[in-house]
Amino acid sequence: MKEIAVGLLGFGTVGTGVAKLLIENQSLIQSRVGAKLVLRRIADIDIERDRGIRIEKGVLTTDVESVVDDPDIDIVLEMIGGEDIAKDLILRAIRCGKQVVTANKALLANQGKTIFKEAAEKGVDVAFEASVGGCMPIIKSLREALVGNRIQSMIGILNGTCNYIFTKITDEGLHFEAALEDAKQKGFAEADPALDIEGVDTAHKLAILTSLAYGVEIQLSDIYIEGISRITPLDIEFAQQFGYKIKLLAISKDLGSSIEARVHPTMIPFNNPLSNVSGTLNAITVAGDAVGDVMLYGHGAGMMPTASAVISDTVDIARNLISGSVGRIPLLSFQMDRIRKTRILHIGEICTQYYLRFFAIDRPGVLSKVSGVLGDNNISIKSVHQKGRKTDGAVPVVMVTHVASESSVKKALSEIRSLDVVSGEPLLIRIEEEENDEE
Ligand code: HSE
Questions:
Q1: Is ligand 1 within 6 A of the CB of residue 164?
Q2: Which of 11, 301, 352, 384 is most exposed, with minimal Cβ within 10 Å?
Q3: pLDDT of 277-289, one tens digit each?
C-alpha cells in the first residue's frame, strides 16, 4: 500500500483535531484514498502538553523547519496561524516542491498573491478549505461543484463570534461584553477579538471567496468593513418590530463591470434563511446563473469541524499525488492568466434600503423636519417608528427607507445631525431585501 507522508506545523486547537482525525480515522481515510496517510512529523513550540492523542515516538519536534525540509514529507499542513512565520514556512515548503494545506485566512487575504504565484510556478497545490467557514465546503463548492455557473452573489454569516454575540443579546438579553466573553471562553474569538468585532476576520474570508467566485483580484482594502460595536439592544429590538434580524454579513455581488464587496451589520427579513442561523454557526447563500440559490450551513470554527475541512484538502491532494494530477484544479478556481482586475464599488456607490436611528426632541414638527431632509435628498421613507414619549429630552426615532443611494443617505444624515432637534450621532444599518420580496 502506497504511503503519503504528512507533516503538521502547529499542534494547537486545529492541529490537534487534524492529528486526531489522521490517527483515529486512518483506516477509514485509507479506504477512501487507496493509500495510507501517515502523520510523519508534528512541529510545535510546546510538545510536552498532553493533547489526549497517542503520538508515536520521534514524531513530535520543536523544529518547524526540519519538517518543511524533510524530503520524505509529501504534504505540509500549516496550522500555526499568524502571518510572517506561516508565510515563510509555506513558501519554503512550496520551494521544496511540497503540497500545502493551510487554514490561514489572514495570510491568504493579505498575501495570497505571492503564495499562489509561487505555487503555480512550482506546480504544487495549495489548498485552503478551512480558511473560510470551518467545515462548510464553500471553497470546494466554488472551485468544483459550481464551476458551470456564473456566480452572481454571495451573502454569508462568516464569523461565529459576532453571530454568537447577536444571538445572545437577542435571545437572552445579554450585554455585548458578556456575550463576547462567552465567545472567548468557547474558543471562537480570534486571539485579538477586535478582528471579529470590527469585521476584519469576515473581510479576510470575503476577500478569499470573492476572488474564487468571480476570478478577480481583490485586496482587503477594497472591501468596505464596518463592525458590530455601534449596534445597541435598542436597534435589535427595533429590527424585530420591523420584521428583521441583525447579522454581520459578508456581501459580494458581481455587477458585470464592477463588484460589490462589503462587510457590515445588516438587517435581513425573518423569511431569509440566514436570519435563523444562530449562535456560533456560519452559513452562506451563493447565487449562480444555473443553480439559483445554494446554501451551506455549519460550524465555522472549532477543533473538529475545522479539522474536517483540513482533512478534505489533504485527501484531495493525496488523491492527486496518486493519480499524478497535481494542479488539476486551478488554485484560485480560474486559470492564473484569466484572473482579471476589476473595479470594486466604493460604499458610497451602493444602493440599498436603510434603517436610520436618531434621537430627537419629542415635539410637533420634528418628524417633518427630518423627513424633509430625507425628501430633499431623494430618499423615500417606507415606515417610521418612535419609541416612548418625553416632554424633556430626546426619544429614539427610527425610519426605514426604500432603496436609496448610500451617498445620498450619508449626506442626509449629516444634515439631520446638525438639526437642533436631533441629538447624538445617527446610526445607519443597511437592509438586505429585494423590495419586491416584501409582504
Ligand atoms: N474568530 C473566528 C469566528 C474563527 O469567530 O468565526 C473562525 O474563523
A1: no
A2: 384
A3: 999 999 999 999 9
What separation in Å is there between the alpha carbon of 190 and the centre of ligand 1? 6
CA neighbours within 13 Å on the CB side: how many for 153?
13
The CATH number of 347-437 is: 3.30.70.260
Residue 201 CB–ligand 1 contact under 6 Å: yes
Q: pLDDT tens digits for 310-322? A: 999 999 999 999 9
Please give the average per-residue pLDDT across 27-34, as a whole number.
97
Say if residue 388's pLDDT is above 70: no
Indicate if the pLDDT at residue 125 is higher than 50: yes
**244 in contact with ligand 1, CB cutoff 6 A:** no
The answer, yes or no, to whether any atom of ligand 1 lies below 6 A from the CB of 133, is: no
Tell whether ligand 1 has an atom less than 6 A from the beta carbon of residue 159.
yes
Write out the DSSP string of 100-144: EEE--HHHHHHHHHHHHHHHHHHT--EE-GGGSSTTS-HHHIIII
Average pLDDT, the chain: 95
Positions marked active-site: 205
Ligand 1 atom nearest to CA at 195: 1
85-89, 165-169, 422-426: the lowest-pLDDT one: 422-426
Which CATH superfamily is 138-299 part of? Dihydrodipicolinate Reductase; domain 2 (3.30.360.10)
pLDDT level of residue 439 (50, 70, 90 thresholds): very low
From ligand 1's centre to the CA of 301, what distance in Å?
6
CA of 196 to the centre of ligand 1 (A): 7
Helix ranges (H only) for 265-405 are 303-323, 366-376
Shortest-distance Cα residue to atom 8 of ligand 1: 301
Helix, strand, coil percentages in the chain from 3-state DSSP, rounded to 5 = 40, 25, 30
Alpha carbon distance 183, 404 (integer Å): 36
Instruction: Provide φ and ψ at 354, rounded to 5°.
Output: -135, 145
